[in-house]
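Bumping my old thread because nobody answered last time. Still need a sequence for this structure:
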């Protein structure tokens, strides 16, 4: 036993005395997931009164906390009222960020927020500085609860006449939070288990309300504040302009491509009226922003439709929002870089401003990492599960970008594939740079010398 004591003593002496903001975020998310998994593995969390087991509970808790929406079981059919409360709580904490929840208690107790807490808040909100972070955090909390309340109210009033007040209120509150946080969990299984919004594909109130919540949640907290304060496109920062224009462009492009590719497909839009085709094409484009709701069977998409969906899912929403993915501005920086290089320019510009070369390289790094992980995930899933590569890739991108859409493959995943999806969902929510900076690089060493340059043949 001496070696154990020596090992413990050695670790205690060499342990890090403080944790960086990125490590705090990553470790706290992991702790929240494990807590949720333990609660969901309780017999009381299952509708049958029998524990589902730790692994399915861990998968569900990860999906909820990372606001993904991939599920092994239908949420309404599997989970009791207690289980559903646990899930929606994990979605709210994961969507707004654990620091938002923690800060809410600080505000209520009227305690001072120290420098360390401000640093963590800034990191959680994807900010580069701590100035104004407390004010922004208040905006996030007030704005989020207000938008969710409005969405819940609209849905409750809409469902009330047909389903009664209690069911309408439960559906309205659950789906408003799930949509705003871009989670994609639903409890419409009491209508048709596992069908998501399939039975509501001709209901414009539900689809447009959920769609609006998804878009608002995916814009990002910093964008909200700037839009609310400046109220003029000319006064917006370059970042906010890029977010708004890129989001609008992606929504319109996704809408057009979905309608074009699926218009006559009987498995998706083919059997709907013209109005419903346009409505569901728009909703599909919105849900690809990492929402995860499905108004038609994603497994019946054409191969071209799946390829387009994978591309849009990979882009995702905006930084500092409830959405995941590569992020809209990162995607736009890559497009601007490619355009600039194709024209022979050495710098990347937007709205008469030059984007630093370091940020361009960061965007390229994130994109290459995500694409590489997506390809590996598709191959791994198809190799270990009875799933085609296309559907495996769809599943991998959905997990990495925290989207939650599935082509019907989630229930057929092997245990190794399920574990990979858990890792991908966590990785996608916490962020590639957060993990790499927090655990891999730590304090970046300065380059103390450089080798002589050499020229290569490119292209």
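Sorry it took so long. Here it is:
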């Amino acid at each position: 036993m001496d070696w154990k004591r020596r090992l413990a003593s050695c670790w205690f002496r060499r342990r890090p005395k403080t944790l960086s903001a990125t490590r705090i975020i990553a470790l706290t998310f992991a702790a929240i997931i494990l807590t949720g998994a333990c609660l969901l593995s309780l017999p009381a969390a299952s509708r049958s009164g029998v524990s589902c087991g730790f692994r399915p509970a861990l998968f569900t808790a990860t999906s909820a906390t990372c606001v993904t929406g991939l599920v092994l079981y239908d949420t309404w059919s599997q989970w009791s009222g207690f289980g559903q409360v646990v899930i929606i709580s994990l979605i709210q904490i994961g969507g707004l960020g654990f620091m938002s929840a923690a800060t809410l208690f600080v505000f209520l107790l009227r305690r001072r927020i120290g420098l360390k807490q401000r640093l963590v808040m800034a990191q959680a909100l994807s900010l580069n500085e701590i100035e104004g972070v407390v004010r922004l955090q208040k905006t996030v909390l007030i704005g989020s609860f207000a938008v969710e309340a409005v969405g819940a109210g609209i849905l409750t009033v809409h469902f009330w006449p047909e389903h009664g007040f209690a069911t309408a209120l439960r559906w309205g509150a659950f789906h408003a939070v799930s949509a705003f946080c871009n989670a994609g969990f639903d409890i419409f299984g009491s209508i048709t288990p596992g069908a998501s919004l399939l039975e509501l594909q001709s209901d414009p109130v539900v689809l447009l309300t959920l769609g609006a919540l998804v878009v608002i949640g995916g814009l990002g907290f910093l964008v909200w504040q700037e839009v609310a304060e400046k109220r003029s496109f000319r006064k917006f920062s370059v970042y906010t302009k890029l977010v708004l224009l890129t989001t609008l462009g992606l929504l319109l492009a996704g809408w057009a491509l979905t309608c074009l590719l699926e218009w006559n497909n009987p498995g998706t839009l083919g059997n709907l009226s013209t109005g419903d085709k346009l409505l569901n094409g728009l909703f599909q484009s919105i849900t690809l922003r990492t929402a995860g709701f499905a108004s038609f069977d994603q497994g019946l998409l054409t191969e071209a439709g799946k390829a387009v969906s994978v591309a849009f899912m990979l882009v995702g929403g905006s930084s500092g929002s409830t959405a995941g993915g590569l992020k809209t501005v990162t995607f736009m920086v890559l497009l601007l870089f490619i355009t600039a290089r194709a024209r022979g320019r050495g710098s990347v510009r937007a709205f008469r401003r030059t984007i630093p070369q370091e940020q361009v390289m960061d965007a390229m790094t994130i994109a290459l990492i995500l694409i590489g992980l997506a390809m590996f995930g598709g191959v791994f899933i198809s190799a270990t599960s009875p799933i085609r590569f296309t559907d495996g890739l769809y599943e991998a991108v959905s997990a990495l970008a925290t989207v939650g859409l599935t082509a019907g493959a989630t229930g057929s995943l092997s245990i190794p594939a399920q574990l990979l999806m858990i890792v991908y969902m966590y990785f996608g929510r916490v962020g590639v740079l957060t993990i790499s900076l927090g655990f891999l690089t730590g304090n970046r060493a300065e380059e103390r010398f450089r080798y002589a340059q050499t020229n290569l043949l490119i292209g």
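Residues 19-437 form one domain. Let me know if any region looks off to you.
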